[in-house]
Structure formats: structure tokens, C-alpha cells
Fold:
Amino acid sequence: MRNAFTSLLALGLVAAAPACAQAAGVTVSYNLDVGPLTVTEVKFTVTVSGGEAHGKARIRTAGMSRVFSEFGATAVGEARLVEASPEPVTYTITRDESDTRKVTTVRWDGGPPSYDPPMKKSDRKERLDAAIANGVVDPFTAVLRIGMAGDSPCPSTHQVFDGREVFELALFDKGAGKLDGDAAWKGDVQRCEVRWTPIAGRAKDKGVPGDSYDVAFAPVAELDDGRKLWLPVEMSGKLKSLNFRGYVTKVSD
Structure:
């Protein structure tokens, strides 16, 4: 469940503003349901100003799932909006589980990123450092690169580093569609298959298999330079034989 949740955070599910709205700032809430129960709630704020983008996501367990695991996280990202594609600057994620807090920060300043705290296991650190040397972005910048890809967010492939894990997000085109259910976004969407594959870190060392999700994207906003901003509006798949669905519940500017 937690690996899929990392992918959800990486993708953001940060939609939706009114179509063709200027992307100055938007706050979005969404639910992650497993079966008939809402197990996770997320509130995401993204702002774009000039040549910079800032994002903040707050995640917490919800409903009966809190009886089994009290989990919360806050992720904050900053990226530069250059002409070619967004470039990462900083990414910090704070994880709270029961009485334990863990803070991880990644910084880019030319060359491979630095990360704190350092990896304790020397063999894992060696594999992790080799992976990030090939060029990686943080989850927030991955959301922006996917969203600012042009006429469609898929196909595309992204190497992502959150300070502890390196993973690949590969998006495959599944055609156009339409949403008319209970999500906050209703209308035309681009459907993609998103495959999450661990490359280096704990998940890779533990032999965690990759996951695959169906994601609906929509051009929910337009940047000042005229580029579309595609963002996820719905996500579904299977977690340990249980069906899950992520969807937008509230939008405010």
C-alpha cells in the first residue's frame, strides 16, 4: 500500500482547476479509496509565479485505517520553469507514523543531487548514488514535467528520486476518454497507463515488484506562456488483490 501511495504522491493527483484557467495557484483535496472505504486523504497546493513553481502536499490516513496505522506526510517541492522542461531545486518530505518523525531533503545545485539524511547501509548507498548520477528529478518536478509535456502527458518516462528511493515512472497512451462520475473534474481526459518500477533503494533491495495504474489526465490549466498544464484527475488499480481508486473531491483557488 505504501509503495502505491508514494507513486500517488509522485503523480500528485493535483488536478483540477476550471479548464483554461491561469495556473497561478490552486488547492485540491482528494480521496484514495480501497474497496468501499476511504483510507487516505490528500490536500495539495501548487503555485506558479514567473519562472518558479512551488507545491505542497499533506497526506493522512482516514477512517478505519487509522486504527491500524496512524500515518501522515507533508511533501514540499520547488522547481525552476525553464524553456525546455522544469528543473528540480529542492524537495522535502516529512513522514509521521505513530510517534516517529522522519524528514528527508533533496537539493539540486548542478550535477547529481545531495540528500539528507545520508544512507546508512554502504552497499545500498553505493547503488543509490550510482542511480542518481544518471539524472533524476523529485516527485514534484516529475508532476510538472508530465503536466507540461505538450499535447499529451503520455507516452513519457521519468527517473524519480525522493531522497530514499529511485524509481521509474513510465506512461503509456491508452487513448482519449471522458469522466462523468463523482470526481470534481468532469469532461474530456487523456487516459494513460502508469508503471512504477523500483531502481535503487529499500524497495529494490527487498525485491518489491513494480506496480501499474490507470490514470486519467486533463488539461486543467494554462500557463502564462500558453502551455497546457496536464494533471491527474482520477487513478485506479489493484493493491494486493484489492481495487483502489483516487479521485478529486474539492477544488479551490
Notes: Residues 64 and 127 are 38 Å apart (CA to CA).
